[in-house]
Known about the structure:
Elements lengths: L1 E3 L17 H17 L2 E3 L6 H5 L4 H9 L4 H7 L5 H25 L1 E4 L20 H11 L6 E5 L6 H7 L5 E8 L12 E5 L5 H19 L3 E5 L17 H18 L3 E4 L8 H25 L3
Parallel strand pairs: 1-2, 1-3, 3-8, 4-5, 4-7, 5-6, 7-8
Helix pairs in contact: 1-10, 5-6, 8-9, 9-10
Amino acid sequence: MRAYYCHHFVLPLPDGHSFPMAKYARLHERVVAMAPALGITLHEPPPASDEDLSRAHDPAYLRAMSEGSADAALMRRIGFPWSAAMVERSRRSSGGTLMALRDALEGEGIAVNLAGGTHHAGPARGGGYCVFNDAAVAARHVQARGLARRVLVVDLDVHQGDGTALIAAGDETLFTFSMHSARNYPAVKPASDLDVALPDGTGDDAYLDALATHLPQAIARARADAVVYLAGADPFVGDRLGHLALSKPGLAERDRQVMAACRRHGLPLAVCMAGGYAPDVDDIVDIHAATVQRAARHHRDLAADRPA
């Protein structure tokens, strides 16, 4: 299974910044260690091009990000100081999901981006530590190449995917399913095609029951050719920016449910990591690494399904 990494394109942040940038290098180390046993190959993605980005984002916004001419209010909404390194990192993160979705559709069945999940970036603005919307960029790319006509985004980050909802609004070929904490960022939540808002403190049983109910609905309504799955670590109990209470085994079961559903329906799948803000970075890495491990098993199972 192919996994794409861009941790070495570092986003420079001031001391004390709340974004856990260190998780990406640690996750890469963990995946390198388990790669031989699980048949994972690691690849640096190309940067998403202006052409790719412009399918999801307005030209004026793309120009402002690329040139560093965005105003202070826009950068405050994103939450990062502007730098050329920030832009390159964001392009590489989008490139990872783009390549993972292409790989999945071109015969791999599943591939993983060890970053991505930047679902708060909308057509003409970023937000919530998100500059470019990798899921939408990837979906538009494979549609433009004729690899897929319809794409389903399964967003299981703890926060609602407002940017993806705005990009996909009025477009039946990009179906957005977001299951998230009701009382959480963003304050204004534009409608996804299917939103499931969960109360504070939702734990494993209630969360997995909701997923078992709504994921089949999303798949049936989307009539998709492929899926992009945002496997956020932030529904974890104690996450600093989440209000849900899933355990690590509960999150692993969430991943299993999503991948099993894709396997049943023959849906190629790109997986990206999305958010995670636990006080102990190792907890975040544990959750993301378990997602990658499950994806590698899914890849093995798909290979076993193919006729000899």
